[in-house]
Amino acid sequence: DAKTTQPTSMDCAEGRAANLPCNHSTISGNEYVYWYRQIHSQGPQYIIHGLKNNETNEMASLIITEDRKSSTLILPHATLRDTAVYYCIVSGNSGYSTLTFGKGTMLLVSP
Amino acid sequence: DTGVSQDPRHKITKRGQNVTFRCDPISEHNRLYWYRQTLGQGPEFLTYFQNEAQLEKSRLLSDRFSAERPKGSFSTLEIQRTEQGDSAMYLCASSLGLSGSEKLFFGSGTQLSVL
Fold first, then answer.
1. Is A101 on the interface with B (CB under 8 A)?
2. C-alpha distances in Å from residue B8, one per residue of A45, A74, B19, B25, B68
3. Which of A6, A15, A72, B92 counts the highest number of beta carbons within 10 A?
4. What mean pLDDT is predicted for residues B12-24?
5. B57-77 tens-digit pLDDT
6. Which of B102, B103, B108 comes nearest A42 by C-beta?
7. What is the mean pLDDT of residues A17-30?
């Protein structure tokens, strides 16, 4: 699976959009981009994933660049409960997936 | 949907003792994963089951570790002769196993402390 690079930490004001970047320059054509988050003392929580097209669900939007070498997770209106570690993961479509988590981005949402 | 359940939430043991953790996946999920997470790090893959078959093991899974998933339902992870380096959060996840869409649902984990 391709490696990803994320900033160590980010800050966001409550109510504002949080834009979390991820670089994955070695991504292969059949690899998906996944985002998970982990709130303190809980297991990781799936947020969203995509292959080529931008995706949106009730939690977030995922913007993938045309060359697929980077992506951005957007939380449109961050709340205090969005404070968590956010993991960007690239994983292949080989029938099953053993996700390789990095250290992620610690997002702190402040009042 | 009651989610992925793990038991116990916390376990304190002395070095050299054996411990066993249990994971109950979401009922219709046929894939089950075990991960380990140490402080400040992301989760690391340990092993994976497709129904009752254990299909992949990480090199992190030494011969002191064994996992089972009888009848493709719940799973157990046993650590024999625990060492202080085994102290970590042990996470279980399950998925439907849809090709191209590996959405994992994680439990809250079992925190192991080896004294």
1. yes
2. 20, 35, 11, 14, 17
3. B92
4. 98
5. 888 888 999 999 998 899 999
6. B108
7. 93
